[in-house]
Amino acid sequence: MKTKYIFKGLIMSLLLTIAVSGCDSYNEAVIENLNVSKEFSPIELTAKVKNQTTVELNWSLKQDQVVDHYVVEFSADDPEFKTIFKTINVTQDQLPVQVALEGETVYSIRVKALSTSGLDDSAWSVVTATTLSEQIFFPIQETDIEGTSVTVRWTPNSNVTQISVAPGGITHTITAEEKIAGVAIVTGLSGDTSYTATLLNGLKTRGMLTFTTGVDVSTGTVVNPGDNLNLLITQAAAGAKLYLMPGDYNAYIGDIVLTKPITIRGVKRYDKPLVNVTFTAAAGASSLSLIDLDLDGTGITNSALITVSGASSTYDDILISGCKVHDYTRALISANALLTKVRSFTVDNSIVRNVNTNVGADLIDFRATYIADIILKNSTFDNCSTSRDFVRVDAVAPANSGFSGTGLTTNVLIDHCTLYKVSNTAAPKRILYLRFNDNASIVRNTLITETTAIYTNQSTTKEPTFAKNYYYNAASFMDGSINLNKVDAGGIVADPQFTNAANGDFTIGNQTLKDNAIGDPRWIK
């Protein structure tokens, strides 16, 4: 028993000694400075990808830390930094810093601090960033596009190896001279074809462009400004393609009677040949294509641009594409031939101005002649059919050599068009004056301004389908108080903020219209 109590006493004495010793340690001085031999590493290091291929770096210092500068190293698809792609020096007041890199690459990025007071460099702080596809191609110019070749341009002296073009699997290997200049000509293309060109560095994409080649003049007959267009058309074979070089065609002015299918096309989209004629599509002229032309009706009295005259005939497609059409006092197209059918009339990517400015017709005017499809898209109609209807299709019954009521249908589509001061000077004139027994119409993505017109007040016009249309100073399109008016209940009123409508510049300033891609696409910039 005595031994046990002696042992307990010794333990208590030992614990008391330790406790006293622990209390004495609190009297030592506080350490205010660490004795370090190198700089602290950057903290909170981040890397954000901006604009596809630019990386924005940012980081923080330890409190009260002052460094001379930082070294930033980049390695491409190499997390072990065996090969350094780029090195930069950055001071603290340059943060955040943006660094332009190449696309489609996983970059490992490391940063270290260098001392102002002789300390060793800090340890590296590391972060990664993956860049997206980049675009170092410059926008393609129309003057760089030919029928079988294209000139493409990119940032000079960039790391690039080849250009791939599809469709067709065409590959152009970039020479050292082309790389430095940032210019190459790709050949072996087909005319009038939509292509995508991809600029590559090895397997990585550095840029993409889409373009459509011009006409390949080897597929038709080249016409020059001094030639007599009427004579050449008369001499041409059925299905001929006449390719007009830029210039004014004034050797013949007046009406050209067509008796065969034909294509008349400008060679350069950006320099359209000026043609001062009208066309009469007589029997045998089963199709007509007018492409990339400047069609001028000045001085031609009371005439439509196109007149369909062949009785008891069948026409396929009548096309106006990429044209400027102006100053024809009567219709854009007039068709009153008996027992005659037309498969389609299309206006695409064109500007039609000051057409049908007298009271003699309607802008698109089908009377006895049956039309299956009227398609107006990606086009501008400026000051047209000022006191008449915009689209007219009459109901001529079989007893009067027409086709209304026979089960045939006329379809009208107006899509991505800009209409300014059309059918405006008499109220109310109609955009869709459709009286053919069976009809259907769609108006979408279209901008209509400065007109008193309505869509229709005809009981025979079926209810149109409307989608995403905008109006300004054109209240009648949504006015239910007008008798029999077929209104666009979902239409939206907004000022498009045209740049200079009076002079034909309909570039829109309204961001909402831009975002919704309303109207003729050429005016969305």
In total, the number of domains comes to: 3
- Radius of gyration equals 37 Å
Structural class: mainly beta
> Spans with pLDDT under 50 lasting ≥5 residues?
1-32
Shape: elongated
Beta-strand percentage range: 35-45%
Could you tell me how far the N terminus lies from the C terminus, measured between alpha carbons in angstroms? 104 Å
Residue share in helix = under 10%
**Number of continuous helical runs:** 4
Rounded mean pLDDT is 92
Main sheet: strands, sense, barrel: 15 strands, parallel
Labels describing this entry:
525 residues; mainly beta; Immunoglobulin-like; 15-stranded parallel β-sheet; ten-stranded parallel β-sheet; 4 helices; 8% helix; elongated; disordered N terminus
Describe the structure.
It is a single chain. This protein is mainly beta. The protein has 3 domains: 43-130, Immunoglobulins (Immunoglobulin-like, Sandwich), CATH 2.60.40.10; 142-212, Immunoglobulin-like (Sandwich), CATH 2.60.40; 297-523. The chain is 8% helix and 38% strand. The protein is built from 4 helices and 38 strands. The protein has a 15-stranded parallel beta sheet that branches. β12 and β13 form a beta hairpin. The longest helix is centred in the first third of the chain and has 24 residues, at 2-25. It is elongated. It starts with a helix and ends in a 10-residue tail after the last helix. The model is unreliable at 1-32 (pLDDT under 50).
